[in-house]
Amino acid sequence: MKDAGSGPAPLRPDLCVIGAGAAGLSVAAGAAQMGASVVLVEGAEMGGDCLNHGCVPSKALLAAARRAHAHAGAARFGLRMDPPRVDHAAVLAHVREVIAAIAPHDSQERFEGLGVTVIRDWARFVSPRAVEAGGRRIEARRFVIATGSSPAVPPIPGLDETPFETNETIFALDRAPERLIVIGAGPIGLEMAQAHRRLGAEVTVLEAGRALARDDPEAAAVVLAALRAEGVVIEEGVAAARVRREGAGVAVETSDGRAIGGTHLLVAAGRTPNVGRLNLAAAGVAHDARGVKVDRGLRTSNRRVYALGDVNGGPQFTHEAGRQAGLALRSALFRLPVRADRAAIPWVTYTEPELAQIGPTEAEARAAHGARLSVLRADFAANDRARAERAAEGFVKVMAVRGRPIGVTIVGPHAGELIGLWTLAISARLKLSAVAGLTLPYPTLNDASRQAAAAHYAARLFGNPWIGRAVRLLARLG
């Protein structure tokens, strides 16, 4: 038996970060640049899911699909365009090129250049104060678990014997799907459904519940109508009861007794936290099916250990992982009190039209605030820029209490860009007057946000008899 003392000496950094995705990389880079010693452990690809399988490749594919679809509405602008010919291999090359352009920022070489010790292996806790990875023992002052999440595989009979794709494999298919079946009508499922439909596939989406269930139903209906108009079949309230191989493709038996055939099957039925390899019991870190349990300061049941991003069961967004990284740095390095308030976290579904949300939806806000709630609205049909671009479907909806916005829903062109104004307004606790009083260039889409905010004051000005009396009185006085 090998003498325990004959191996390499333990590494004793200030911080050991497990996982090189959005949260882990942000913590490692920030800590190293502020003078802390850092060990970064990653068993898979640097950059994590977002760079390699999620945000980046999906948006690159959507961009290609948007250009392929441009001919469909060209006649409305007086243009005649031939339908595009899609080169699937070239489309995937575009996706890979986008990833490759971003990858150096997340690379092992960059982080080693910052002074971070990078170990490419899976980490495993061996005690509350130590991790082993790559044949090394790491005894850090603080640990950060940032291992992210993976596609959830639902217990559908036959799925374990049937070839299927997830977001981790769909961007590497050697042939374009001809008939794609998507299980799950959340953001990932619908983004991929629209992208592949625009690139030439027949697409059927099966959703056991309501499509875009976490979003405002009125806003979701705008997105679903647009996708259906493009030929995406979206079946709500229909579950996949069984799947099987069928020749070179697949077949899905539905809960209402039908069989739907396809060449490819995409499972987009949620995410599951990556905790299986960590041996959390040895660290005394509590967790459940949702992920690692954390307090408001992002600490686990082991006070030396933080958990950030998807793995802690909170909102599964790259930007939220980055925000949590900043909070953890303040706590771990400077011992400052932090609180991971989730009231001002925006999210976007990048279909066309886009759907963006921050804070509570209308239904959630009504349940919480009752009669104190004001719901303000501006339709893109009344926005001149949207009209000029023939993209006038959708609206801005603002939930406000006592003159302050608490939640905003935007569905329409570039909603993901437009939500930034409201993210600032809500996080800074600005009044509606700050948005209503903006002077914006004309014509811009963001004027819809200004109009929605101004509606709060219009009702008070134009419907108030005292205002009219004051105007008439001042007129008589000359």
UniProtKB/TrEMBL annotation:
Gene3D superfamilies: 3.30.390.30, FAD/NAD(P)-binding domain. NAD(+) binds at G184, A185, G186, P187, I188, G189, L190, E191, E207, G270. Its cofactor is FAD. Binds 1 FAD per subunit. The keyword Oxidoreductase applies. Residues 345-452 form the Pyridine nucleotide-disulphide oxidoreductase dimerisation domain. GO terms for molecular function: flavin adenine dinucleotide binding; NAD(P)H dehydrogenase (quinone) activity; oxidoreductase activity, acting on a sulfur group of donors, NAD(P) as acceptor. The keyword Nucleotidyltransferase does not apply. Keywords: Disulfide bond, FAD, Flavoprotein, NAD, NADP, Nucleotide-binding, Oxidoreductase, Pyruvate, Redox-active center. It comes from the Bacteria. InterPro entries: FAD/NAD-bd_sf, FAD/NAD-binding_dom, FAD/NAD-linked_Rdtase_dimer_sf, Pyr_nuc-diS_OxRdtase, Pyr_nucl-diS_OxRdtase_dimer, Pyr_OxRdtase_I_AS. Residues 14-325 form the FAD/NAD(P)-binding domain. Disulfide bonds join C50-C55. FAD binds at K59, T147, G148, S149, D310. Belongs to the class-I pyridine nucleotide-disulfide oxidoreductase family. This is Pyruvate/2-oxoglutarate dehydrogenase complex, dihydrolipoamide dehydrogenase (E3) component. It comes from Oceanicella actignis.
